[in-house]
Design goal:
The chain is an all-alpha fold and about 280 residues long. The protein is about 80% helix and about 0% strand. The protein is built from 12 helices and no strands. Helix 2 crosses helix 7, helix 4 crosses helix 11 and helix 7 packs across helix 8. The longest helix has 29 residues. The radius of gyration is 26 Å and the shape is elongated.
């Protein structure tokens, strides 16, 4: 009696081997290192800057707005509030700076929503890039806009006669503080851009929130001139604390508690909103 031993066909064994190798290769190809993520972020940030180059009207809020607001507020309210234009400039320049840069941070959310509506992010999904790169790149590119708004506001103020007592270092510190806070706030608007359905909705809701926060603060008038019930809100308004911190740095070169509390608040916003925004974005990216 002869016993016959059977073994798997070579083609079947080879088939199983060839199927397992591509799976491992695919898993490896989907893993993006931190270095690659940073590189992809830089590329997406450069893409954002190119959008500004081809659509210069996007710079309106950081180029034209500070000029118009500085001239308008200074010459209309300067004499009535401070008695003279020169005396009003140390009060209004930090306020206009904060208003301009914070308002510019809304663009982060609107641009994200527009890219999603146009299907740009769907094309990004097919590329071998880090999924977080389009979001982090957009946030990085907007820092350039904040810097431009800061520089222009201070230049306009200097031309009009503003002489910051904090000197060059105080002005630089004030500018950096505003940019850091605007970047922190941009995470909130980025979240709104991810979860809302239209760019116009993002912009409309953002302005509804920022408009009262900016004008119901100490940005343009002394708190003492306001009604008592309004003073209570102004004193707890986060925009008021940021404006006060900028004035401390630019006008006096002093790093006080306003600066410390402002930095702590910015850190809290990033620690809370960044994970929430990234989680919401990754579900749609």
């Amino acid at each position: 009696m002869t016993t016959t031993t059977t073994s798997p066909a070579p083609s079947q064994s080879a088939g199983r081997a060839t199927h397992s190798v591509p799976r491992r290769a695919t898993e490896a190809s989907n893993t993006v290192s931190l270095r690659q993520t940073l590189s992809h972020t830089r590329t997406m940030a450069y893409r954002g800057l190119l959008k500004f180059k081809h659509n210069p009207e996007q710079f309106f809020d950081v180029v034209v707005q500070p000029v118009i607001f500085t001239l308008m507020f200074t010459y209309i309210f300067g004499g009535a509030i401070s008695g003279a234009v020169d005396d009003y400039l140390p009060l209004v320049i930090p306020g206009i700076l904060v208003q301009t840069v914070i308002t510019a941070s809304i663009v982060t959310g609107t641009q994200l929503r527009e890219d999603m509506d146009k299907g740009v992010f769907d094309r990004f999904k097919s590329l071998p890039i880090a999924r977080i790169a389009p979001l982090s790149g957009a946030l990085s590119a907007d820092v350039v806009r904040y810097t431009l708004a800061t520089v222009i506001t201070f230049i306009v103020g200097l031309i009009m006669g503003y002489r910051p007592g904090g000197g060059v270092l105080g002005v630089i510190a004030a500018g950096v503080l505003v940019i850091v806070c605007a970047w922190a706030i941009s995470w909130i608007f980025a979240f709104m851009g991810v979860v809302m359905n239209k760019a116009s909705t993002v912009q409309g809701v953002s302005m509804i929130v920022l408009f009262p926060l900016t004008f119901m603060s100490n940005a343009f008038v002394p708190v003492e001139t306001m009604p008592g019930w309004l003073q209570g809100f102004v004193k707890i308004n986060p925009v008021s604390h940021l404006v006060s911190a900028v004035r401390e740095l630019a006008n006096n070169g002093h790093v006080g508690m306003e600066v410390a509390w402002t930095l702590i608040a910015a850190a809290v916003v990033v620690l809370v909103m960044a994970p929430i925004t990234v989680r919401a974005y990754m579900r749609k990216a």
